[in-house]
Amino acid sequence: MAEAESRRPAAPGEDVKPFTPEKTKEIVMSLQQPAVFCNMVGDWPALHWNAKYLSAVLDGKTIQFRLGLKTMGLVPQFETRCSYVKATLEEFLAWSCGQPCLSGPFSCYEFSKYWAYADYKYIARIFEDKPEFFQDIRWSDFGFPGRSGKESTLWIGSEGANTPCHLDSYGCNLVLQVQGRKRWHLFPPGDTSFLYPTRIPYEESSVFSKVNITNPDLKRFPKFRNTTAHVVTLSPGQVLLVPRHWWHYVESIDPITISINSWIELDADHEARVEEAITRMLVCAIKSAENPSDGDPWLNPTEVEATSHEINLQYLNKAVLAYFKWQKASESEQPCSSSSDAEQRTTASGKRRKREVGCEPEGCRLLTHEFGFSTFKAENPQKMPFGPHLIQVLPQSQETSSVGAVAVESDGRDLPHENEGGHFGKLHCTRTQLVMSNDCETPAHQMDSDGSPNASQTALSTNDLLDCLVNPHVINLVARLLLERTGV
Q: For residue 368, what are the CA distances in angstroms to 190, 240, 364?
């Protein structure tokens, strides 16, 4: 009963938030580990946005759903490997209830075998004819005045719907759970080399992991054993902070889940845009030169087309110009500010900038451990007001590491106490030796007896080259050199 009461939207004047907007923003901008805010959104009208309510409000409007198999092998189920249909929420609800669909968009997809996900849906676009709904989402309570549903994204999924493990290149992320529960598997920036980053499929602002973290291929990706997973089950009414550069795999664990998120821009995004422009230029140039008959679906469905070299060069020049313009303005405003402070200031724009890759801006070491992919000095936990209203997402120990579930514990009102799912903790699998250099591996069966690559069996692909060429560590270094050269 107490749990139900804590999730009930409060009457006007009844809701008292545990943190002021100023304090909440301070937490969001300084905390460098994931955490869950509780009891912060009790009076938000958006908490009423369950699937039935949205179905009635949208009144037959079709949206695109991504469909994937509930059973998967060792390869991540990237968006290029999924099917897509356009359907109404009413049709989605009927299908997700297990009702036989003899016709309609879901008729070819048996509910017991597939999940469906309407992901990355811009609320500004979905509700373009109903702008009054933007105010149902009040990020001003988190210290970002003026930010509402217009700067937010909607996610609607069935049980099993998931987002492949990836890193967001831009900003930090605030995620409100509205209906059902989602399980988040988060990995710190320092785990980047253990997650085998790739830019194929290519999507600006997304660095994907080649590892299916729910069923890791440890023969091919043995360094995954070294990752430190932070797993949390997010329940309705809770808001998850995903700090900058944290990897995440997200899965719906209830029949219907609905989430709303907003990416908060950071000053460090200026350098990240330069890195993304370099990456786009290289990926498009090299992949466009391949024979189209090869049939490699290298462009993520979220990307409309492979842009030309001329357009990509313009993009790079604009990103570099914007970086120096920001740097000049930043120096004039706060000439003595530290790199850490500069990183964490938000920009004024509310436009979504999803992903962020890179290292600290001016003033930090050029490279940190393993080519310096961005790492952060964790905020002293003693300085953070952790408790029933702000709950740390703690790392799992090697003994209890579980892809299934570890829910954070609170005062019992907002977060369920769970421990379900399959463990892969010690992973006593037979390990095939790999020879690696900067995340580019040569399988053991392609080795001669002396340990050198077998020329007759080694067939490097374009993607193998790109995994090294546009590795986040390498791109960060190239961006630094380019900015240094341009700034002279």
A: 10, 28, 9
